[in-house]
Amino acid sequence: MLKRYLTLAMAFLLLLSGCSQTKDTVTEHKGKEVQNNHKETVTIANHYPLTGVATKEDIGGRAVAVMVNNHPDARQQSGLDQADIVYELLAEGSVTRFLAIFQSEKPERIGPVRSAREYYIKLAKAYDSIYIAHGYSEEARKMLESGYIDHLNGMQYDGSLFKRSSDRVAPHNSYITYEKIIEGANKEGYSMEKAPEPLTFLTRDEVEKLEGQKADKVTVAYYNNATFTATYEYDQQIGKYKRSSAGAQTVNHDTDDPVLLDNILVVETAHQTIDDAGRRKIDLSSGGKAYLLQKGIIREVEWKSQDGKIVPALNGTVIGLVPGKTWINVIPSSPGLSGSVKFEANESE
Questions:
Q1: CA 194 from centre of chain
Q2: Does the global pTM surpass 0.90?
Q3: Tens digit of pLDDT for each residue in 257-268?
Q4: 333 near 289, Cβ under 8 Å?
Q5: pLDDT in tens, 1-24
Q6: DSSP string, 66-89
Q7: How far apart are CA 101 and CA 87, in angstroms?
Q8: Angle between helices 138-145 and 118-126 (to 10 degrees)
Q9: CA 348 to CA 27: how far, in whole Å?
Q10: Which residues of 29-60 are buried (b: 16+ CB within 10 A; e: fewer)?
């Protein structure tokens, strides 16, 4: 009898071991339906391509890239807290403008929407986005009219797809809803089904092993202009960065929800002024020096263009992002232009 009990116990332990091995095996097939050792179909969580965040929801859907105004009269903005990726680059003078890329979340309202520039269009194209802007420079207009990218522009749809807010003055009061983006895409015959190619993300173990110089607060300045100086402070309790601009935390105008970030990439590249209006040409292909902020540490890395996307690298090899939201600041490295990165650590921790 004792021998029989021992045999049953061993069989039970082997069954548990087999289940454990099956669990470890199927987790390697994220986002797919696989069969375990019992021939049962198991669905592993999908991961959003631009955040790497796991979800049981369908991860399909085309990315939407929106030009968002960053003039003081346009703050606070709507929708930035729901963007997967935000690029911040200089437009004219010392004024920055945002390219907010949405895929995992669909904000009710986005804006104020601002006019297109050539280098923002190229970044939007890299994610196969539908590009949303209100207005354009002459170079940008030519690109859009050539069919370079699927787009919706307030110059053609002001008052229909794009609505003016009564509490702000033009050109700081143009907004669009996600519902109107879908309506416009259908009207123009643009497909909204295909998701962008996934970015490279760190595993949980890799995140825990991150090493670098401690930096609880990082300041990114453009021309030392306080109005367009961004500060990122790491909140240890929630494990994310909070962003501030000109001393005010960046939050959603409609909900007061804060912008919370997992990766901040600051890249240096050549800027060139090309006309009397101060419009620019910005090198987004050559690569160069960069700083990567993750989990309260800062590392000096490189940036490279991966099919038009700006990504962090070391020795030419792309390195992973922490799953979550990313903000990319592009600052001048050209002689005579002022872009700076300063960081500090909280010594009391």
A1: 18
A2: no
A3: 999 999 999 999
A4: yes
A5: 434 433 434 443 333 344 433 333
A6: EEE--SGGGPSPBSGGG-SEEEEE
A7: 8
A8: 40
A9: 40
A10: eeeeebeeeeeeebebebbbbbbbbeeeeebe
